[in-house]
Every structure is written in structure tokens, then in C-alpha cells.
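Write out the bound-state structure for nicotinamide-adenine-dinucleotide.
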Amino acid sequence: MNASKTFQLYIDGAFCDAEDGAGFGSVEPATGRIWAEMPAASAADVDRAVAAARRALEEGPWPAMTPSARGKLLWRLGDLLAERAAEFGELETRDTGKIIRETQGQAAYVAHFYHYFAGLADKVQGHTLPIDKPDMMVMTLREPIGVVAAVVPWNSQLFLAAAKLGPALAAGNTVVLKAAEAGPASLLKFAELVDEAGFPPGVVNIITGFGEPCGRRLTSHPDVARVAFTGGPETARHVVRNTAENFAHLSLELGGKSPFIVFADADLDSAANGVVAGIFGASGQSCVAGSRLFLEAPVYDEMVERVVAKAAAIRIGDPLDAATEMGPLCTAAQVERIEQALAASLGAGGELLCGGRRPQGLSEGFFFEPTMVACETPDVVVAETELFGPVLSVFRFEGEEEAIELANRTRYGLAAGAFTRDIGRALRVAKRIRSGIAWINTYRAVSPVAPFGGYKDSGLGRECGAESVLDYTRVKTLWINTSQAPMADPFVMR
Ligand code: NAD
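---
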């Protein structure tokens, strides 16, 4: 891959630089060095992109297209991504540090998201209503909402974008998609596939830039009617305030501090693999990371031993090497945040079980060891804060009630995992944990078919699943008078 690559914005069907020529260097997390130049969209670029999306919504081929024709375009987009999944995976790895075996597999799977939403395009339908008035036929129509602003964070950008673009386009909207300022390469490149698939100009616009001004202008733009945001809760608070300007419909996919509960009757081998996948997969940079581990007292020591052994064996290194199991974090700031949280936790209710530092021999990039901290109480800093890194807080519990109580003691509520052979207990726990997703004897499984989203500070609304397309529509109610008689004069008494 070229050492000094440049990327462009995609607005109104054309590749272009930012209007004022602004840009920034993208840092390769494995080396800490700039490897590519990215454009930084200004408020003026956002305005151009929104104007293009608005035009494409109202004029030209897109609004005239049948739902099944839209579905065909989406299907083609999925096919094109599937064909080039290896290339897109490599790009994402280079730019975000996520390991290649995960990014290539994910890019191939993301293609399936477009296929899934392609199939839903011609299944968006209204109803005929059993109206309580004679001679009236009343029906609801599902119309596109309008211009959608889709904003994603740096982890899994292709994936997070698909969960927004798929339903938005299936329902006939147009989109301005903002890639994160960290690791935007794969999404900016994805514009080539949108172009090749044959979407009319302006239907999909892909930009990147900083929260200020780009993200703020986009989410508060008067011509944006729907905002689909994924990111952290603090940024989400800005986004909610921004939408006070345009009253846009809003969905928020935010962070998590998800509990992973292992009962004494669990298959411990399987549970240990689940724990490792949940927190050390993607170097812990996953919104659903199982970052709080609750172990029932009789298996506490054995499980700690097993997971520590697995953590110690994880192969950390070059994310482009297929043998690597854990890559770097995406930014230097992430590593510093984790170091600060650990410093505030160790000796203050937290005791280091393993890891806790940058690995030796990997001084250039943003690497951090798989880390486990035994916590006495839930208010230890590492156990309270979403660290978005490979840091696991470990707790001991006695019995189901305590497990549920501890698991719910967080402001987040995205996901939860429970390992047990007792199906009754599994269902009781799943129902009482306040999270949008509950995994039993598995972890980190996702699908376009399955709704995804959180309770509490983890967000608002759900992505994926058949109903998610309806979240990109408005209802219009159509009243038809079928009577042969003329409408009565309202001021003549009868
Ligand atoms: P972030 O909130 O800092 O940034 C997300 C996006 O918002 C970026 O594109 C950024 O440029 C943009 N932005 C920043 N300021 C803005 C503003 N004022 N107005 C509009 N947009 C603005 O998130 P991050 O740190 O890059 O990503 C990590 C966070 O994302 C974590 O909290 C993680 O849990 C969450 N996340 C959630 C999910 C989910 O589906 N629930 C998935 C992945 C990541």
C-alpha cells in the first residue's frame, strides 16, 4: 500500500477536496506515523453535501425509482463490497489498528447487511385503517423522512455505517455520512463502491472532518430531518442539543460498560473464551465490550486463573499480520486515558491481576497489554468508566440476586452476557438486566437481522432488524371520501 495516500470527500457524485483545502494527517496506530492525508470538511462542505442530498431527494431519478429498483442498487453495493472485502479490511486495519483477520471478516459480513436491507426495500408498507366513520377510506403511507445525517465513531466504521445507510436507502432517503476523524480511510474509499453501484449523484455523500465544525453543522443543519449517531455519550449530548435546531428524528448508539456473568455451573472453557472475545477482541474497542466480569465465588479463583493464562498468551503485534491476535489502540490519547484510569484505580479498590502497561518491544505504536483488575467495589475508576480498551474489571459475587444487582449498577445498558447451564436462571437474569442485548452462553454476536441498541446512557432507538427501516420513514395519513354525496355545508344545521 502507498505510504502517502490521499483521500477525498464524495459530494454530489463527485470526488473532491475540502473547499478551503483543509486536511489532516491520519496516523497509523501500529507505527504512530502519518500514513495518509485526509480532507477536513468545513461547514461550507457540509452545506454543499446537504444541498446535494436535498436535491437528490426531491428531483432526478431517486424519488422516481421503485422500491425494488432501490433494493437492486443496495444489493449491488453489497456485492461490490463482498468482492473487495480483503482490500477494505486491509485499509481499515492500516488506518485504525484493528487486526486484519477481524476487519477482513467484518467487511465481508457487512456486505450481507446491504443484502439484508436490499430485501427490505419493497416491504415497507402502510395500512388500511378500520376507520370509525362511514364512507371514508383511510390509509397510512410510509414516506422517506428526508436527508439523513449519519455520524460514526472510529471503530468499525464500515459496519456502523451499513446499519444506517442500509435502512435509510431502503426507505428512499438520501444520506450525508460523516466518517470519524480517526481512521476514516475505509469509509472514504467506500464512496467508490457507491459510485460504481450506480446510485444517482447526491443520494449518498461521504465526508469526514472534526466534531467542530463538521459534526455540529451536519447534525444541526436545517435541511437534515433524521440524525443517526454512534459515538460516546458526551458527544451525544451535543448532538441532542444540535437537533434542537432542526427537530430531526434521532437515534443514538452510545457506549457501554457491559457485565459478563459466570455462574458456578457454567462450562468454564466456553465462558473463558467468551470473556476473552468480549474484552480483548478488537483490543477492547467495542461498544459491547464485556468489560465487567462477575464470577460466582466457587469458580472465582479457577476462572481468574484461566482468563489470566489466556490473556498472557495473546499474540500482540502488527495488525496487518494474520497471526496477530491483538493490535494497537486507535489513538495515543486512548492509551493515555487507560493509563490514567489504572493509576487512579490501583491501590484504590483495584488490584492488578495481569497486564497494566505498554508491551515491551512495541514502543512505536499505541499498544497496551491485556489487563485485568480485581475490584473490591463497583466504584473503582476502571470499573465505572468506559475505557474502550483491553481492561477487564473482575468481581466476586454470591448468588443470582447479587449478580443482577452488581450488573445493573452502571449508567450504561448496552449489552450483557451470562454463562450458566440452568436455562431458567439464564432467562431470569436476561430479563432483569437493564440492557438492550443479552447474550446467553455466547458473546459479541451481531447480525443485520437482530435489533441492536441500549438502555439508559447507552442510547436511544435500535439499529438493524426489519423494523429499523420504519425508523427512516414518516407516516402520512390519507383520508378518502368514497361517498357519492357532496360534502355537507358545515354551517347548515341538519
Ligand atoms: P465520539 O463521540 O468522540 O465521536 C463520534 C463521532 O461524533 C465522530 O465522527 C466525531 O467527529 C463526531 N462528533 C464529535 N463532536 C461532534 C459534535 N459536536 N456534533 C456532531 N458530531 C460530533 O466517539 P469516539 O470516541 O470516536 O468513539 C467511541 C465511542 O463510540 C464509545 O463511547 C463507544 O462505546 C461508542 N460506540 C457505540 C457503538 C454502538 O453501536 N452503541 C458502536 C461503536 C462505538
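---
The pocket of nicotinamide-adenine-dinucleotide is lined by residues 151-155, 160, 178, 180-181, 210-212, 215-216, 219, 230-232, 235, 238-239, 242, 253-256, 287, 386, 388, 414, 459 (CB under 6 Å).
The first helix runs from residue 43 to 58.
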